[in-house]
Structure formats: structure tokens, C-alpha cells
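Propose amino acids for all 357 sites.
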């Protein structure tokens, strides 16, 4: 480690030092699963959920039903009429762009420290690890006492204040969505309480243009270890791909929509009824892409497992129960690798007898 100036490599650093025509070897991901050939050239459209309709409801709760089936079939939707103001989103864009443009020395104050997973940069776990084409900053923002003193509290104050506002708006939005998911699943209302004032974190990502975008990965394939995630494509540049029914596909989103995805915790809580979606971020050769993901999780003290109110002999538990704290620690001790982490939580058929008794 001592030989490296920055233990966390920065793509922004790499491309500003000298113009690149070819991508360094360690950024090349040779085993990428290809995207499905599109039939007729049209991209599939991720279902749209209208927050206003969802909250107001009606006699038939049509939008709630749509939410329910979308979470089962897709695990991802675009949220329109979300109520977060254009001016706040513009401010957020300005602040996040400003953050990534800070001099390297400034950003390195926040660099990921050995053994940790929060901060600026990529967690490098092994010498031969393939690196992603992007710089990112990940940190816990709730509960407040979990904020590391040198991370969130040390961000430029205008960025911090904007993030606080964004957090409080999204917090309400996310809680409403999760409570409605519980309603659609016919869960006892109290079983969603574990998300109240829960563990929240953010990942801001900056994906610079790349001379050979097809060789690299912006963010490796993964599902989020969350209840739900709300992703905002800050500067409107797309690049997200999802794996649906076993095939990778690029997806387009409406310009003002948030991308909401079901995470592994929700898949566990719903006992597999809702599916977390595997996704990855790609980059392009022309324009940088900026995103912010906000992750909504249960409290650290909570135990996660299939909601007991929906279990019965016809719906036996498919996943183990584990403390949230332990769950998070284990997740971050490994590299992102599709949905492999969720699979570890699954009760194997040879274990079923003892756990369902
Ligand atoms: C994430 C994520 C996608 C993106 O941060 O977990 O999936 O487009 N981000 O940046
Ligand atoms: Ni993700």
C-alpha cells in the first residue's frame, strides 16, 4: 500500500493527467455478459409508477396493484410525480458536479481508509482486482451518530445542506413507498416499522467519458443490499442496464423520473414475492455521467427475515433471519457479484426442516 500514492484509484485523476486513447489493462473487464440484441431497435421500457396516483389511491387501488406487479415482475420502476422540486434537483446537480471537480487533494481527505467501505474511491481488496470506470463517494447518513466525523460532516457546507434537504424529501417518499409495498403484500403494518429512522446511505458516482467504453464497466453487476434504492441520474445521461429474465438490457428513463429498485432486503422481507433487480452501470465515450443513489434500509438493530405475517404452510420462509448489522458487514466484505449475496441468505432445501419447524 505504501507504494501507492492513493490507495483508492481515481479515474478522474487518470484521465486528467494525460489524454488516453486506450484503457489501462486493470480497467478492462473481459468477461462482461453481453446485452440482448434488441428486436426492432427499441429499448424496453421500465414500468412507470405515478406517486400522486399511488398516494391518493382510488376505490380499486389500480396504481397500488401496478406497483405490486412491477415489484414482482421487474424489481425496478420509474417514479413520476414524485414531488421533489426541480430547483432542489438543479441545486443537487450543481453541488455534486462541483464536488467531483474539486482538486484531487481535497477529495482524498475523504478517501476510503484501510478496512473500511465508506468514503471516496473504490475499495481495493486484491492486487488483481478489476477496477470500475468511475469515481464514487459512499457514506452512511442516518442514523446521525453513524456519520463518520471526517466524511459527511466535512463535505462542503453547500453540498451538505443540499444533501440534507434531499435526504429529508426522499426519506418521506421512500417510507411511503415501502409502507404501500407492505400493504400490497398484505403484511402487518408493524412489520415495516423496522425501516423507520433506519440505516440510510448514499453513493454519488461520476463516470468520466471513456475512449473504449465497451471494454470497461462503470459499476459491476450487483443487486442492492437494501429495502429500496432511489437512483437519480443527476445530469440526465443514461447508462444503467438491468438483467431481466436472464438477459442484460439497456433501459431508458423519462428525464424527470427517479429510478426506484427493489433491493435484497425487500426480497427477503417479502419472502421472495418481490425481486431485487440485478443492474450495472455502463459508460460512453462522449459525456460524463453522474448519479446519486440513496439506499433505504432497516435500523441496524433490526433483525431481517421474511415477514412473519405473510408466512403460512403454503408460504414457508425461503430466507434465513439475520441481524441487519451483521448483514451489512458481510455484504461490504465482498466484491459486488450479481445476486450472490442474497443467495447466501436462502434456506437450502436440506435445511428447511429444522428452520420451518
Ligand atoms: C448503485 C448503483 C447505478 C448508477 O450505486 O448501487 O447501482 O447508475 N448505481 O450509478
Ligand atoms: Ni445499485
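Proposal:
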Amino acid at each position: 500500500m505504501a507504494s501507492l500514492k492513493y490507495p483508492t484509484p481515481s479515474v478522474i485523476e487518470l484521465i486528467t493527467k494525460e489524454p488516453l486513447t486506450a484503457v489501462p489493462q486493470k480497467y478492462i473487464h473481459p468477461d462482461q455478459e453481453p446485452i440482448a440484441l434488441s428486436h426492432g431497435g427499441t429499448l424496453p421500457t421500465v414500468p412507470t409508477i405515478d406517486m400522486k396516483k399511488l398516494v391518493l389511491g382510488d376505490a380499486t387501488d389500480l396504481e397500488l396493484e401496478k406497483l405490486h406487479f412491477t415489484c414482482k415482475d421487474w424489481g425496478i420502476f420509474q417514479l413520476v410525480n414524485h414531488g421533489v422540486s426541480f430547483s432542489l434537483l438543479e441545486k443537487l446537480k450543481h453541488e455534486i458536479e462541483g464536488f467531483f471537480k474539486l482538486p484531487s487533494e481535497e477529495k482524498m481527505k475523504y478517501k476510503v481508509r484501510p478496512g473500511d467501505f465508506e468514503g471516496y474511491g473504490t475499495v481495493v481488496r486484491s492486487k488483481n482486482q478489476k477496477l470500475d470506470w468511475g469515481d464514487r463517494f459512499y457514506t452512511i447518513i442516518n442514523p446521525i451518530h453513524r456519520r463518520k466525523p471526517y466524511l459527511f460532516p466535512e463535505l462542503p457546507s453547500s453540498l451538505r445542506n443540499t444533501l440534507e434537504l434531499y435526504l429529508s424529501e426522499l426519506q418521506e417518499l421512500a417510507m411511503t413507498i415501502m409502507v404501500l409495498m407492505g400493504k400490497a403484500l398484505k403484511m402487518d403494518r408493524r412489520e415495516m416499522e423496522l425501516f423507520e429512522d433506519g440505516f440510510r446511505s448514499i453513493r454519488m458516482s461520476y463516470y468520466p467519458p471513456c475512449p473504449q467504453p465497451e471494454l470497461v464497466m462503470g459499476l459491476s453487476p450487483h443487486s442492492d443490499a437494501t429495502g429500496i434504492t432511489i437512483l437519480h441520474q443527476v445530469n440526465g445521461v443514461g447508462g444503467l442496464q438491468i438483467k431481466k429474465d436472464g438477459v442484460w438490457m439497456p433501459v431508458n428513463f423519462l428525464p424527470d423520473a427517479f429510478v426506484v429498485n427493489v433491493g435484497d432486503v425487500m426480497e427477503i422481507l417479502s419472502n421472495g414475492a418481490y425481486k431485487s433487480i440485478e443492474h450495472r452501470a455502463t459508460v460512453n465515450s462522449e459525456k460524463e455521467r453522474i448519479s446519486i443513489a440513496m439506499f433505504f434500509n432497516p435500523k441496524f438493530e433490526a433483525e431481517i427475515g421474511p415477514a412473519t405475517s405473510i408466512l403460512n404452510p403454503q408460504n414457508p420462509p425461503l430466507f434465513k433471519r439475520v441481524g441487519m448489522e451483521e448483514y451489512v458487514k458481510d455484504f461490504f466484505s465482498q466484491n459486488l457479484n450479481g445476486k450472490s449475496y442474497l443467495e447466501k441468505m436462502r434456506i437450502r432445501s436440506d435445511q428447511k426442516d429444522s428452520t420451518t419447524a
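The pocket of nickel (II) ion (ligand 2) is lined by residues 222, 224, 229, 279, 293 (CB under 6 Å). The first strand starts at residue 48 and ends at 50.
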